[in-house]
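User: Run a structure prediction on this.
Assistant: Running it now.
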Amino acid sequence: MLHSLEISELIVVCHHAIADGISGAYLIRDILLALAVPSVILQPLPMPRSLEELMLGKADATLPDCPVALQTSDFKPPETSSLSRLLAGSLTPETTSRLISRCRQEQTSVHAAICAAFLLAIVRQSDSKQEQTLKCLTPINLQKRFISVTDAQFSLCLTAAMTLHALTPDTNVWAVARSVKQQLNPAMETEQVMTAIQQLQAWMSENPSATEVWQGFIEQYGCDIVVTNLGRLAIPQQFGQLHLRGIYGPSVMPSRDDGRLLGVATVG
């Protein structure tokens, strides 16, 4: 907690093996509630269910079992040589409203527009005027697909979809935004989401080594930018005398030196 008389910054750090961005937002909510309204008794959350348990009855195919005995290994992921940097910013409610309106007019989504803007920013930072193909990774929240709003859990419950874009500095941002949305739409269908999970589960059931898992992760999810958007969070802004002005994140430590991640959250 970075505290001052009028405003404070609450920094929450979780290991990604046990929590996703939505879980972090719920944790912030509960911390603020406990601080501002100590008379409220927060009930312990149940043990989170695995994706296999959540998908029972949801998928037609039977998922293979995970290996009983995992391979042991001294493998360590390569260390990055650069320091991570975190920049935070926000849009005013008025700007947000105008952005939503323009996205509707352009037949795209706010998330796609954000992806497009930052993809073009990467291209325009380059001295080259030649066409570049960039990859953008979008995490997909699975909690709302498998868990009711009142049964939300603190866990890692997501998958991801990749979009590819051939860009030049002069490419129109709204054309890119429409391309992002068009590529994401089929990838976010429940059937496609479950197929991706089943393929990953089938691969893990073969008991790959730690090195193979790391290489597979890089091959599957290596990209030029990750845009993780929590959407409009269903949490209050007022906690007793405390007011939640904004949530900056989520942010994840990159797995490579030139990794870029943009975290987006909307409150209010």
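The chain has one domain: 21-62+89-266.
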